[in-house]
Design goal:
- The protein is an alpha/beta fold.
- It has one domain: Aldolase class I (TIM Barrel), CATH 3.20.20.70.
- It contains 6 helices and 6 strands, in the order βαβααβαβαββα.
- Strands 5-4-3-2-1-6 form a 6-stranded parallel beta sheet.
- β3, α4 and β4 form a beta-alpha-beta unit.
- α1 packs across α6, α3 crosses α4 and α4 packs parallel to α5.
C-alpha cells in the first residue's frame, strides 16, 4: 500500500491525488474522524473524490477510533476501508462483518501518515512524501 496521506478536506484529497498523478493513493482520515465528521460526511467526501478522479486508484480509510458503533455505521454506508482501535474481541467481530461485505478493517499505521495541515504547498509535500522509499 502507498504511503498514507491524512486528509481533512476535499482540498487535501485533491492535492494528494494530483500529486500521485494516477498512481495508487492511500488517504486516511484524522484519528477518530468517524466521531467528528461522521460516516456520512466521509461517504460524501469519498463520493466527491470519485466524481472528480474517477480513474484514480484510491484506498480511503476512515478512522473510527475505539467506537465499534461508528465502525458499524461506516460499514452500513458502504465505506470499504475502516480503522478500529478498540478491544481485540470487537475488532475480530468487526473484521468478520467487514469481510462479509467486501470491506477491510485496517490496523493502525505506526509510521503515521503525512499530515497536510499548515503546508504551504500541499501538492509538493505529497509528491515528496510519495516519492520516498
Amino acid at each position: 500500500m502507498p504511503r498514507p496521506i491524512q486528509i481533512l478536506s476535499l482540498e487535501d484529497a485533491r492535492a494528494a491525488l494530483t500529486a500521485a498523478g494516477g498512481a495508487p493513493v492511500c488517504l486516511v482520515s484524522a484519528p477518530d474522524a468517524a466521531g467528528a465528521l461522521g460516516a456520512g460526511g466521509w461517504r460524501a467526501l469519498l463520493d466527491a473524490v470519485a466524481q472528480e478522479f474517477p480513474e484514480a486508484p484510491v484506498t480511503a480509510i476512515l478512522d473510527c477510533g475505539d467506537a465499534a458503533g461508528h465502525a458499524l455505521a461506516a460499514l452500513a454506508l458502504g465505506i470499504p476501508d475502516i480503522r478500529f482501535t478498540g478491544d481485540a474481541a470487537a475488532a475480530t467481530r468487526l473484521a468478520d462483518i467487514a469481510r462479509s461485505q467486501g470491506a477491510r478493517l485496517h490496523p493502525s499505521d505506526e509510521a503515521g501518515p503525512l499530515d497536510l495541515r499548515g503546508r504551504r504547498d500541499p501538492i509538493a509535500a505529497c509528491r515528496d512524501w510519495l516519492a520516498r522509499p
